[in-house]
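Write out the bound-state structure for MTE.
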Amino acid sequence: SWEYVQKEKSPDMIHVLDFPYNGEPPKDRVIEHAITPNPLFFVRNHGGIPKINADDWTLNISGLVREPKRLTLADLKDESKFSRVSNIVSLQCSGTRRIEQIHEYPGDGDELINAPWGEGAIGTARWSGVSLKKVIKYCGGLKDGAGHLEFFGADTYFKKGKVYNYVVSIPWRKVKVHEAILAWEMNGEPLPRIHGYPVRVVVFGYIGARSVKWVYKINAIENPSMAPVQSKEYLYYTPQIGKQNATYSGGFSIQDMPVSSAIMNPIDQQQIIHDGTIKLKGWAYSGGGHWPVRVEVSGDGGSIWYEVDHKKMSDKYFYAWRLWEIDLPVDAEGWLEFCVRCWDNALNTQPTYVRSAWNWDLHVTSSCHRIKIYSIN
Ligand code: MTE
Ligand code: MO
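---
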Protein backbone atom coordinates (compact mmCIF):
# COMPACT_ATOMS: atom_id res chain seq x y z
CA SER A 1 0.00 0.00 0.00
CA TRP A 2 2.69 2.52 0.95
CA GLU A 3 4.22 2.13 -2.48
CA TYR A 4 1.11 3.71 -4.00
CA VAL A 5 0.66 6.29 -1.27
CA GLN A 6 4.20 7.52 -1.92
CA LYS A 7 3.96 7.29 -5.70
CA GLU A 8 0.49 8.69 -6.22
CA LYS A 9 -0.21 11.12 -3.39
CA SER A 10 1.26 14.51 -2.54
CA PRO A 11 3.78 14.39 0.34
CA ASP A 12 1.61 17.10 1.94
CA MET A 13 -1.32 14.72 2.55
CA ILE A 14 -2.44 14.44 6.17
CA HIS A 15 -2.54 10.77 7.11
CA VAL A 16 -5.84 10.34 8.92
CA LEU A 17 -5.12 6.60 9.29
CA ASP A 18 -1.98 4.71 8.18
CA PHE A 19 -3.68 1.34 7.64
CA PRO A 20 -6.06 1.09 5.97
CA TYR A 21 -4.60 4.16 4.31
CA ASN A 22 -6.86 7.21 4.69
CA GLY A 23 -5.64 10.70 3.88
CA GLU A 24 -6.86 14.23 3.25
CA PRO A 25 -5.03 17.30 1.92
CA PRO A 26 -4.20 20.25 4.22
CA LYS A 27 -7.04 22.79 4.42
CA ASP A 28 -5.46 25.39 2.16
CA ARG A 29 -4.75 22.86 -0.56
CA VAL A 30 -8.29 21.45 -0.59
CA ILE A 31 -9.52 24.74 -2.07
CA GLU A 32 -6.53 25.55 -4.28
CA HIS A 33 -8.27 24.21 -7.42
CA ALA A 34 -11.94 23.81 -8.38
CA ILE A 35 -10.87 20.54 -10.04
CA THR A 36 -8.72 18.73 -7.48
CA PRO A 37 -5.37 17.50 -8.84
CA ASN A 38 -5.16 13.70 -8.46
CA PRO A 39 -2.23 13.76 -5.97
CA LEU A 40 -4.32 15.97 -3.64
CA PHE A 41 -7.60 14.04 -3.85
CA PHE A 42 -8.56 12.53 -0.47
CA VAL A 43 -8.28 8.76 -0.08
CA ARG A 44 -10.70 6.55 1.85
CA ASN A 45 -9.93 2.84 2.12
CA HIS A 46 -11.38 0.02 4.20
CA GLY A 47 -8.55 -2.40 3.43
CA GLY A 48 -5.52 -2.79 1.21
CA ILE A 49 -4.86 -1.43 -2.27
CA PRO A 50 -5.19 -4.26 -4.79
CA LYS A 51 -2.69 -4.53 -7.61
CA ILE A 52 -4.72 -5.33 -10.74
CA ASN A 53 -3.35 -5.84 -14.23
CA ALA A 54 -5.69 -3.98 -16.59
CA ASP A 55 -5.14 -6.57 -19.35
CA ASP A 56 -6.37 -9.38 -17.10
CA TRP A 57 -9.20 -7.40 -15.55
CA THR A 58 -12.77 -8.38 -16.34
CA LEU A 59 -16.12 -7.16 -15.15
CA ASN A 60 -18.61 -9.89 -14.39
CA ILE A 61 -22.23 -8.71 -14.76
CA SER A 62 -24.69 -11.22 -13.37
CA GLY A 63 -27.76 -11.75 -11.19
CA LEU A 64 -31.08 -10.40 -12.46
CA VAL A 65 -29.81 -9.27 -15.89
CA ARG A 66 -31.24 -10.95 -19.00
CA GLU A 67 -27.87 -11.82 -20.56
CA PRO A 68 -25.08 -12.09 -17.98
CA LYS A 69 -21.74 -11.06 -19.48
CA ARG A 70 -18.06 -10.75 -18.74
CA LEU A 71 -16.56 -7.57 -20.19
CA THR A 72 -12.93 -6.55 -20.61
CA LEU A 73 -11.59 -3.01 -20.41
CA ALA A 74 -11.25 -3.10 -24.22
CA ASP A 75 -14.98 -3.89 -24.44
CA LEU A 76 -15.84 -0.89 -22.27
CA LYS A 77 -13.56 1.36 -24.31
CA ASP A 78 -15.01 0.12 -27.62
CA GLU A 79 -16.97 3.16 -28.80
CA SER A 80 -19.01 1.04 -31.19
CA LYS A 81 -20.51 -0.57 -28.08
CA PHE A 82 -20.61 2.31 -25.61
CA SER A 83 -20.25 6.07 -26.03
CA ARG A 84 -17.74 7.70 -23.74
CA VAL A 85 -18.93 10.13 -21.08
CA SER A 86 -17.06 12.72 -19.00
CA ASN A 87 -18.53 14.38 -15.92
CA ILE A 88 -17.27 16.79 -13.29
CA VAL A 89 -18.37 15.23 -10.02
CA SER A 90 -17.44 15.74 -6.37
CA LEU A 91 -16.94 12.77 -4.09
CA GLN A 92 -17.56 13.41 -0.43
CA CYS A 93 -17.07 10.86 2.32
CA SER A 94 -19.91 10.85 4.82
CA GLY A 95 -17.18 11.07 7.46
CA THR A 96 -16.11 14.54 6.26
CA ARG A 97 -15.95 16.98 9.20
CA ARG A 98 -16.45 14.08 11.66
CA ILE A 99 -13.92 15.69 14.01
CA GLU A 100 -16.54 18.32 14.90
CA GLN A 101 -18.96 15.62 16.08
CA ILE A 102 -16.14 13.91 18.01
CA HIS A 103 -15.42 17.20 19.80
CA GLU A 104 -19.11 17.65 20.61
CA TYR A 105 -19.48 14.13 22.03
CA PRO A 106 -17.29 11.20 20.97
CA GLY A 107 -20.01 8.58 21.30
CA ASP A 108 -19.21 4.94 20.71
CA GLY A 109 -20.08 4.32 17.07
CA ASP A 110 -18.64 1.62 14.85
CA GLU A 111 -16.48 3.92 12.82
CA LEU A 112 -15.19 5.94 15.71
CA ILE A 113 -11.67 4.60 15.63
CA ASN A 114 -11.64 4.70 11.86
CA ALA A 115 -11.26 8.17 10.54
CA PRO A 116 -11.41 11.47 12.43
CA TRP A 117 -11.76 13.45 9.19
CA GLY A 118 -11.49 17.21 8.97
CA GLU A 119 -13.03 19.23 6.13
CA GLY A 120 -10.80 17.65 3.46
CA ALA A 121 -12.55 14.34 2.73
CA ILE A 122 -14.09 15.91 -0.35
CA GLY A 123 -12.68 16.45 -3.82
CA THR A 124 -13.78 17.11 -7.38
CA ALA A 125 -12.57 15.43 -10.55
CA ARG A 126 -13.50 14.99 -14.19
CA TRP A 127 -14.32 11.29 -14.42
CA SER A 128 -14.43 9.59 -17.83
CA GLY A 129 -15.86 6.23 -18.77
CA VAL A 130 -19.26 4.85 -19.76
CA SER A 131 -22.75 5.21 -18.38
CA LEU A 132 -23.61 2.14 -16.31
CA LYS A 133 -27.12 2.15 -17.78
CA LYS A 134 -25.65 1.49 -21.24
CA VAL A 135 -23.66 -1.44 -19.88
CA ILE A 136 -26.74 -3.00 -18.27
CA LYS A 137 -28.69 -2.48 -21.51
CA TYR A 138 -25.86 -4.26 -23.34
CA CYS A 139 -26.58 -7.19 -21.01
CA GLY A 140 -30.18 -7.25 -22.22
CA GLY A 141 -31.48 -5.04 -19.42
CA LEU A 142 -32.82 -6.09 -16.04
CA LYS A 143 -35.17 -8.97 -15.31
CA ASP A 144 -38.48 -8.26 -13.58
CA GLY A 145 -38.07 -7.56 -9.89
CA ALA A 146 -34.52 -6.23 -10.10
CA GLY A 147 -34.32 -2.98 -8.18
CA HIS A 148 -30.70 -2.55 -7.16
CA LEU A 149 -27.18 -3.05 -8.46
CA GLU A 150 -24.57 -4.50 -6.13
CA PHE A 151 -20.91 -3.56 -6.74
CA PHE A 152 -17.99 -5.76 -5.64
CA GLY A 153 -14.56 -4.22 -4.99
CA ALA A 154 -11.45 -6.42 -5.22
CA ASP A 155 -10.01 -5.09 -1.96
CA THR A 156 -10.53 -7.01 1.26
CA TYR A 157 -10.91 -5.86 4.83
CA PHE A 158 -11.12 -7.51 8.18
CA LYS A 159 -13.97 -7.01 10.63
CA LYS A 160 -14.98 -8.98 13.72
CA GLY A 161 -12.93 -12.03 12.77
CA LYS A 162 -13.94 -12.24 9.11
CA VAL A 163 -12.53 -11.14 5.80
CA TYR A 164 -14.89 -9.31 3.44
CA ASN A 165 -14.75 -7.76 0.02
CA TYR A 166 -15.92 -4.17 -0.18
CA VAL A 167 -19.54 -4.53 -1.41
CA VAL A 168 -22.37 -1.97 -1.56
CA SER A 169 -25.42 -1.31 -3.73
CA ILE A 170 -27.40 1.54 -5.28
CA PRO A 171 -30.98 1.62 -6.55
CA TRP A 172 -31.59 1.15 -10.28
CA ARG A 173 -33.49 4.46 -10.46
CA LYS A 174 -30.14 6.22 -9.92
CA VAL A 175 -28.56 4.30 -12.81
CA LYS A 176 -31.55 4.85 -15.08
CA VAL A 177 -30.96 8.63 -15.19
CA HIS A 178 -27.26 8.19 -16.07
CA GLU A 179 -26.08 9.24 -12.61
CA ALA A 180 -23.69 6.29 -12.25
CA ILE A 181 -20.72 5.60 -14.51
CA LEU A 182 -17.88 3.11 -14.79
CA ALA A 183 -14.79 5.32 -14.92
CA TRP A 184 -11.21 4.48 -15.98
CA GLU A 185 -9.96 8.06 -16.19
CA MET A 186 -9.59 10.71 -13.50
CA ASN A 187 -8.76 14.22 -14.78
CA GLY A 188 -7.58 12.86 -18.12
CA GLU A 189 -5.19 10.30 -16.61
CA PRO A 190 -5.67 6.58 -16.09
CA LEU A 191 -7.30 6.06 -12.71
CA PRO A 192 -4.50 6.02 -10.08
CA ARG A 193 -4.23 2.63 -8.33
CA ILE A 194 -5.15 4.17 -5.01
CA HIS A 195 -8.38 5.50 -6.55
CA GLY A 196 -9.52 2.18 -8.06
CA TYR A 197 -7.40 1.24 -11.09
CA PRO A 198 -8.34 -0.01 -13.58
CA VAL A 199 -12.08 0.78 -13.20
CA ARG A 200 -14.27 2.25 -10.46
CA VAL A 201 -17.90 3.19 -10.10
CA VAL A 202 -18.70 6.90 -9.72
CA VAL A 203 -22.18 7.66 -8.40
CA PHE A 204 -23.12 11.34 -8.74
CA GLY A 205 -24.43 13.19 -5.69
CA TYR A 206 -24.30 10.14 -3.41
CA ILE A 207 -22.10 9.48 -0.41
CA GLY A 208 -18.57 8.50 -1.58
CA ALA A 209 -19.04 4.99 -0.16
CA ARG A 210 -21.17 3.90 -3.15
CA SER A 211 -18.45 4.79 -5.68
CA VAL A 212 -16.75 1.40 -5.52
CA LYS A 213 -13.06 1.25 -6.44
CA TRP A 214 -11.42 -1.78 -8.11
CA VAL A 215 -14.89 -3.02 -9.18
CA TYR A 216 -14.83 -6.55 -10.66
CA LYS A 217 -18.44 -7.68 -10.36
CA ILE A 218 -21.90 -6.16 -10.66
CA ASN A 219 -24.85 -8.16 -9.42
CA ALA A 220 -28.45 -7.14 -10.18
CA ILE A 221 -30.62 -7.84 -7.13
CA GLU A 222 -34.10 -7.21 -5.82
CA ASN A 223 -33.36 -5.36 -2.56
CA PRO A 224 -30.40 -3.37 -1.21
CA SER A 225 -27.28 -5.49 -0.63
CA MET A 226 -27.04 -7.40 2.66
CA ALA A 227 -23.23 -7.11 2.56
CA PRO A 228 -21.86 -5.55 5.76
CA VAL A 229 -20.76 -2.20 4.33
CA GLN A 230 -24.26 -1.64 2.89
CA SER A 231 -26.35 -3.05 5.73
CA LYS A 232 -24.23 -2.23 8.80
CA GLU A 233 -22.21 0.84 7.92
CA TYR A 234 -23.07 4.30 6.60
CA LEU A 235 -26.28 4.42 8.58
CA TYR A 236 -27.73 7.58 10.05
CA TYR A 237 -29.23 7.30 13.54
CA THR A 238 -31.55 9.59 15.48
CA PRO A 239 -30.07 11.52 18.44
CA GLN A 240 -31.61 9.07 20.96
CA ILE A 241 -29.64 6.13 19.59
CA GLY A 242 -26.42 4.98 21.26
CA LYS A 243 -24.55 1.73 21.73
CA GLN A 244 -27.10 0.47 24.27
CA ASN A 245 -30.08 0.60 21.90
CA ALA A 246 -28.65 0.69 18.37
CA THR A 247 -29.86 -1.84 15.82
CA TYR A 248 -28.64 -1.79 12.25
CA SER A 249 -32.18 -1.87 10.92
CA GLY A 250 -32.90 1.25 13.00
CA GLY A 251 -30.42 3.29 10.97
CA PHE A 252 -31.23 5.10 7.73
CA SER A 253 -28.98 4.16 4.81
CA ILE A 254 -27.13 7.29 3.68
CA GLN A 255 -27.33 7.90 -0.07
CA ASP A 256 -27.85 11.54 -1.24
CA MET A 257 -25.50 13.90 0.57
CA PRO A 258 -27.11 17.00 2.10
CA VAL A 259 -25.91 20.57 1.60
CA SER A 260 -22.73 21.44 3.48
CA SER A 261 -19.90 23.99 3.47
CA ALA A 262 -16.69 24.85 5.29
CA ILE A 263 -14.34 27.75 5.94
CA MET A 264 -10.86 26.56 4.93
CA ASN A 265 -9.00 29.84 5.38
CA PRO A 266 -8.42 31.29 7.95
CA ILE A 267 -8.30 28.35 10.36
CA ASP A 268 -9.65 27.79 13.87
CA GLN A 269 -7.77 29.68 16.66
CA GLN A 270 -5.88 31.87 14.17
CA GLN A 271 -4.89 35.40 15.20
CA ILE A 272 -5.46 37.94 12.43
CA ILE A 273 -4.23 41.51 12.23
CA HIS A 274 -6.35 43.44 9.69
CA ASP A 275 -7.88 46.85 8.83
CA GLY A 276 -11.56 46.16 8.75
CA THR A 277 -11.96 43.15 6.46
CA ILE A 278 -10.90 39.53 6.72
CA LYS A 279 -10.79 37.31 3.65
CA LEU A 280 -12.57 33.96 4.08
CA LYS A 281 -12.29 31.06 1.64
CA GLY A 282 -13.93 27.67 1.51
CA TRP A 283 -16.07 25.11 -0.29
CA ALA A 284 -19.82 24.50 -0.55
CA TYR A 285 -21.47 21.35 -1.85
CA SER A 286 -24.86 19.71 -2.10
CA GLY A 287 -25.56 16.13 -3.18
CA GLY A 288 -28.52 14.53 -4.88
CA GLY A 289 -28.11 16.61 -8.05
CA HIS A 290 -28.49 19.90 -6.17
CA TRP A 291 -25.95 22.69 -6.29
CA PRO A 292 -24.99 25.66 -4.09
CA VAL A 293 -26.82 28.86 -5.04
CA ARG A 294 -26.00 31.00 -2.01
CA VAL A 295 -23.15 31.01 0.48
CA GLU A 296 -23.38 33.24 3.56
CA VAL A 297 -20.81 33.96 6.23
CA SER A 298 -21.07 35.56 9.64
CA GLY A 299 -18.45 37.14 11.91
CA ASP A 300 -20.65 37.03 15.01
CA GLY A 301 -21.65 33.40 15.34
CA GLY A 302 -24.63 33.68 13.00
CA SER A 303 -26.56 36.84 13.89
CA ILE A 304 -25.65 38.91 10.84
CA TRP A 305 -24.96 37.19 7.53
CA TYR A 306 -23.09 38.44 4.46
CA GLU A 307 -23.71 36.85 1.08
CA VAL A 308 -20.78 35.73 -1.05
CA ASP A 309 -20.78 37.55 -4.41
CA HIS A 310 -21.69 35.12 -7.19
CA LYS A 311 -18.64 36.27 -9.12
CA LYS A 312 -16.58 34.93 -6.20
CA MET A 313 -17.98 31.43 -6.56
CA SER A 314 -16.45 28.84 -8.90
CA ASP A 315 -18.48 27.42 -11.81
CA LYS A 316 -21.76 25.68 -11.21
CA TYR A 317 -22.12 21.97 -12.03
CA PHE A 318 -25.03 19.73 -11.11
CA TYR A 319 -22.85 17.31 -9.16
CA ALA A 320 -19.91 19.33 -7.89
CA TRP A 321 -18.86 21.69 -5.16
CA ARG A 322 -18.33 25.43 -5.60
CA LEU A 323 -15.33 27.18 -4.08
CA TRP A 324 -15.96 30.67 -2.73
CA GLU A 325 -14.28 33.66 -1.11
CA ILE A 326 -15.45 36.86 0.57
CA ASP A 327 -13.98 39.91 2.29
CA LEU A 328 -15.91 39.94 5.55
CA PRO A 329 -16.27 43.35 7.24
CA VAL A 330 -15.00 43.01 10.82
CA ASP A 331 -14.84 45.89 13.29
CA ALA A 332 -14.79 43.94 16.55
CA GLU A 333 -11.61 42.86 18.27
CA GLY A 334 -10.88 39.79 20.36
CA TRP A 335 -12.28 36.29 19.99
CA LEU A 336 -15.00 36.08 17.32
CA GLU A 337 -16.96 33.13 15.98
CA PHE A 338 -16.93 32.93 12.20
CA CYS A 339 -19.37 30.63 10.46
CA VAL A 340 -20.64 29.70 7.02
CA ARG A 341 -23.84 28.25 5.67
CA CYS A 342 -24.88 27.33 2.16
CA TRP A 343 -28.29 27.21 0.46
CA ASP A 344 -28.77 24.84 -2.46
CA ASN A 345 -31.07 25.22 -5.46
CA ALA A 346 -33.87 23.40 -3.61
CA LEU A 347 -33.41 26.01 -0.82
CA ASN A 348 -32.15 23.46 1.64
CA THR A 349 -29.72 24.85 4.18
CA GLN A 350 -27.59 23.52 7.04
CA PRO A 351 -28.44 22.61 10.65
CA THR A 352 -27.36 25.43 13.00
CA TYR A 353 -25.14 23.55 15.45
CA VAL A 354 -23.24 20.26 15.50
CA ARG A 355 -25.57 19.13 18.29
CA SER A 356 -28.58 19.79 16.02
CA ALA A 357 -27.62 16.75 14.00
CA TRP A 358 -25.26 14.68 16.17
CA ASN A 359 -25.62 10.95 15.46
CA TRP A 360 -24.10 7.87 17.01
CA ASP A 361 -21.97 6.72 14.08
CA LEU A 362 -20.83 10.32 13.55
CA HIS A 363 -21.76 10.58 9.87
CA VAL A 364 -22.69 13.55 7.68
CA THR A 365 -21.54 16.51 9.74
CA SER A 366 -23.37 19.11 7.69
CA SER A 367 -24.09 21.70 10.38
CA CYS A 368 -22.99 25.29 9.97
CA HIS A 369 -19.16 25.25 10.13
CA ARG A 370 -17.78 27.41 12.96
CA ILE A 371 -14.28 28.61 13.80
CA LYS A 372 -12.87 30.96 16.46
CA ILE A 373 -10.69 33.82 15.27
CA TYR A 374 -8.72 36.34 17.34
CA SER A 375 -9.26 39.68 15.62
CA ILE A 376 -6.80 42.57 16.00
CA ASN A 377 -8.07 45.62 14.16
N1 MTE B 1 -14.26 1.11 -2.83
C1 MTE B 1 -13.58 0.06 -2.37
N2 MTE B 1 -13.42 -1.00 -3.18
N3 MTE B 1 -13.05 0.03 -1.12
C2 MTE B 1 -13.22 1.10 -0.25
O1 MTE B 1 -12.73 1.05 0.88
N4 MTE B 1 -14.21 3.33 0.08
C3 MTE B 1 -15.39 4.12 -0.28
C4 MTE B 1 -15.40 4.42 -1.78
N5 MTE B 1 -15.13 3.25 -2.55
C5 MTE B 1 -13.96 2.22 -0.71
C6 MTE B 1 -14.45 2.19 -2.04
C7 MTE B 1 -15.52 5.36 0.44
S1 MTE B 1 -16.14 5.23 2.01
C8 MTE B 1 -15.27 6.58 -0.15
S2 MTE B 1 -15.59 8.02 0.68
C9 MTE B 1 -14.72 6.67 -1.51
O2 MTE B 1 -14.44 5.40 -2.06
C10 MTE B 1 -13.45 7.49 -1.53
O3 MTE B 1 -12.88 7.52 -2.81
P1 MTE B 1 -11.37 7.90 -3.01
O4 MTE B 1 -10.53 7.06 -2.09
O5 MTE B 1 -11.06 7.70 -4.44
O6 MTE B 1 -11.27 9.37 -2.65
MO1 MO C 1 -16.55 7.35 2.77
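---
The pocket of molybdenum atom (ligand 2) is lined by residues 44, 93-95, 208-209 (CB under 6 Å).
The first helix runs from residue 2 to 8.
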